[in-house]
Amino acid sequence: MGVICGMIIIGTLANKLGRRKGSILTATLMAFGSIGLVLVSLIFQNDASRLFKAMVAMLFLFGIGVGGEYPLSASTASERAMLELQLQHQHQQHNNEAPPVSTKGREVLLTFSMQGMGVFINSLMQSLLLVIMGELGHYQGDDAVYDLNQVNADDAAAIPTYNSFKLFWIWRIIYAFGAIVLFAVLIWRSMRLTESDIWLQTQQKQQCENANSSTAKLILPMTNPQMFKTVLHVYGSRLIGCSLSWLLWDIAFYGNKLFQSTFLRALAGDHATLLDLSLAATLNAFVALTGYYTAAYIVDIPSVGRYRLQLLGFILTGTLFFTCGMLNGASSLPPSITIALYLGSSFFGQCGPNATTFLVPAEIFPTQVRTMCHGIAASAGKVGALLSSVFFNFLHNDKDLFLVSAYASLAAALITYISIPETTTLDLTELDRHWTQITAGPILGENDIPSNHPLAAIQPEFLSLYERRYLTNQAQKNSIEFL
């Protein structure tokens, strides 16, 4: 719930406050939330009830910062890449060189890949700390023990036991490491982070035109309710499309997380120790990380792009989940097949919808409303995660879990096919030109867009199937005159 609040509230505020202030705000919430988690683990270590309540409060605070980080990191990376492309284009024109190749998708996904890197480092740290503290799974002699309930054993002596005091410190050290990193990020952002030039240019242009306008028809301020109505009128199908596809993906993605224990046991064996399971989780995180980086390095290829990568990713992961469901429980199915299917879903899930659902909302909306729209779409994803974590408990077996994830992925593929546009080769400033014409009318249009200059943002190749089929030329004209 904290993440959902952060995505919507900070995502909306960042359009007005700017990317720098918004990023400092998210870093502050995450840093102090994570420090709070470490402190309450020390203060209430002997009182489980109070520890739980205190951690809930700290995680909610931490979650608000995490939620705000989604739209801000995506928009900032996208705008930074767009600025670099503009500078390269100016240099190319001045020196009569070949046009630069856009890498704006790569910039955003390399930023997002740090999520996968964090998961991988966490699993790796856990494995190393288990080795350093000697918690390799003992069968006798420990005074304080933790029973690994997942292990199937006929005899209690075959269940590995652990020193619970040491396990508690492993957990606490991992939290403390995250807190140190986040506090360093807060200091760096406060001292070194600069404002997005694209956002500044948009703000300055709006202020200048509003000041020079002799009519009451000004650019919509972010606090005006009419602004959101205009977003829905012009970009409603995109907002609904990317929100629903993200929601359905997170139902599949977080539902898939519920199967991880089954996969880890298949990989590590029925009598696995905590170290065995941790190493298996590290392998899975590494495979997922390769998916992040693969997506980053192919997403800007025009023949691949955002739309195709997301569509094919949904179809592949849906097919893999469906196969897992149909084969689940087959007595003759070797563990290697289960492992291959699960690792395949981890790879194609990251090199596909998990990457593109983060990228697409950062590129299909204009600068003035980008973080707000991205925050709405991302919060829809977390609603999907919430739905899967609650309602999947009512499913009775792993087969149903796999099949629901498959159906969610395939439904998201259909939504992608209908509502998601391709923006790989689109200059994001063209979205601002379109938005400017809509919100400021002919005043800005006469100055910024010559009558013989077509708006690239509404050319067919940059529209979704729905927009191409149902938004006629007359509807486009109506949208410009909407206010």
The pLDDT mean sits at: 83
How can the largest sheet be summarized? none
Number of domains: 1
CATH top level is: Mainly Alpha
* Amount of beta strand: under 5%
Protein described:
- With 483 residues, this protein is mainly alpha-helical.
- The chain has one domain (2-419): MFS general substrate transporter like domains (Growth Hormone, Chain: A), CATH 1.20.1250.
- Helix content is 73%, strand content 0%.
- The chain has 17 helices and no strands.
- The chain has helices spanning 2-17, 19-43, 48-95, 104-132, 164-192, 197-212, 225-257, 260-268, 274-298, 305-327, 335-359, 370-391, 398-419, 429-440, 442-448, 465-470, 473-480.
- Helix 9 (274-298) packs across helix 11 (335-359) and helix 14 (429-440) runs antiparallel to helix 15.
- The longest helix is centred in the first third of the chain and has 48 residues, at 48-95.
- It is globular.
- The two termini are 35 Å apart.
Comma- or semicolon-separated keywords:
483 residues, mainly alpha, Growth Hormone, Chain: A, 17 helices
Short description:
By secondary structure, the chain is an all-alpha fold.
What secondary-structure arrangement, pairings included, does this model have?
Blueprint: H1 2-17, H2 19-43, H3 48-95, H4 104-132, H5 164-192, H6 197-212, H7 225-257, H8 260-268, H9 274-298, H10 305-327, H11 335-359, H12 370-391, H13 398-419, H14 429-440, H15 442-448, H16 465-470, H17 473-480
Helix pairs in contact: 1-2, 1-3, 1-12, 2-3, 2-5, 3-4, 3-12, 4-5, 4-9, 4-11, 7-11, 7-12, 7-13, 8-9, 9-11, 10-11, 10-13, 14-15
